[in-house]
Amino acid sequence: MESFKVHILGCGSALPTLRHNPSSQLIEIREKFFMVDCGEGTQIQLRRSRTHFSRISAVFISHLHGDHCFGLIGMISTFGMLGRTAPLHIYATAEFKPMLDAQMEMFCRGLEFEVIFHPVSTTLHQTVYEDKSLTVETIPLDHRIACCGYLFREKGTLPHIRRDMIDFYHIPISQINNIKNGADWTTNDGEVIVNSRLTYPAAAPRSYAYCSDTRYIPTLYKLVKGATLLYHEATYTTEYARHAKQYYHSTAAQAAQVAHDAQVGRLVLGHYSARFDDETVLLNEAKAIFENTILSNEGLVIDVKE
C-alpha cells in the first residue's frame, strides 16, 4: 500500500509553551509532501522530522492567526538559502496575498523559485487541488476570522491483477490494462472468464480531514463523513465550554461528537490550551464518546489506514 502519513510538527494553541509548538502538520501521501499550517518554529520541527525541505510542494493555511502562519515567511527564506528551484504553492484566503507579497519583497528578494499563490474561499466546500492520485477540498469552519480545514482524499485505483490466473489462461500482457478496466477474457475455446476471477479489488481510498480552529458545528460531520483519520481541534475540556464558545474553539467532547457522527476511523486531538499541563483529561473526555481517539504530539507520525 502506498504511503499516507501525517507528521505532527506542532499541536499547541496561540499561547507559547515549552511543551508544544504552534500548529503545523506535514502530509505525506504517495511520495508527495504537503504542509498544513505553518506556525512559528515549523522549520525547526521539519529538521527534527528529517524531511528534506525541497520535497514540500504546497502549503495550505487554514486562517490568518499567527500561530498558524507566522512560520511561513521564515521557511520560504530558508528554501531560498538552500537553493530551491521547484515552485512552491501557497493556498490561503485572498487577504493573505498582499501581506505575503510585502514580506517577500522585504525578506526574500532574489529567490530562484516561484511562489504561486492560490486564493481559497473559507465559506465553500470545494476542491482546491487535484492531481492524478488525490484531491484536496476545503472544509468551512466557524472561527473568529475566516477559517477552513482541508480534506485530503486519495483517488481510487484500478483492481489488482491475479498473476496466477493470467498465467493459467495465458492472457497476453497487452490485455492487462483492459482487464484492470473491467474486461472479461474469452479463451480460444470460447469460455468466458469473468473479470472477478482475474482481479482482486484495490484497497479502499483513504482520506484525512484537518479541522483547525473552530466552534462546534453540528453539521460538520457531513463534510468529513467516513474519513479514515480526522484531526479536530480540542482546545478545552467541557469544564471550559463557555470559553470555547466565546473564543470560537471546541471542547474535546465536541470533537469526539463530530468523529462519532461522521463515523470516521480514528480521531486525533490537538490545539491544546496552555492551561493543561497534562492533556490526558482531554483524551479521556473524548474517548467517553469516541473510543478510537489519540492525542497529537510533536514528532508523532500517524499512518492513515483503515
TrEMBL record:
Q: What catalytic reaction does the record list? A: Endonucleolytic cleavage of RNA, removing extra 3' nucleotides from tRNA precursor, generating 3' termini of tRNAs. A 3'-hydroxy group is left at the tRNA terminus and a 5'-phosphoryl group is left at the trailer molecule
The first-level EC class reads hydrolase
| GO MF, one annotated term | zinc ion binding
Q: Where does Zn(2+) 1 bind?
A: 63, 65, 143, 213
Q: Which Gene3D superfamilies match?
A: Ribonuclease Z/Hydroxyacylglutathione hydrolase-like
* EC number annotated for this UniProt entry: 3.1.26.11
Record Pfam families: Anti-Pycsar_Apyc1
The catalytic site is made up of 67
The record's annotation in InterPro entries points to: RibonucZ/Hydroxyglut_hydro, RNase_Z/BN
Q: What does this protein do?
A: Zinc phosphodiesterase, which displays some tRNA 3'-processing endonuclease activity. Probably involved in tRNA maturation, by removing a 3'-trailer from precursor tRNA.
The family annotation for this protein states:
Belongs to the RNase Z family.
Mind telling me what this protein is named?
Ribonuclease Z
Q: What is the protein's species of origin?
A: Hoylesella pleuritidis F0068
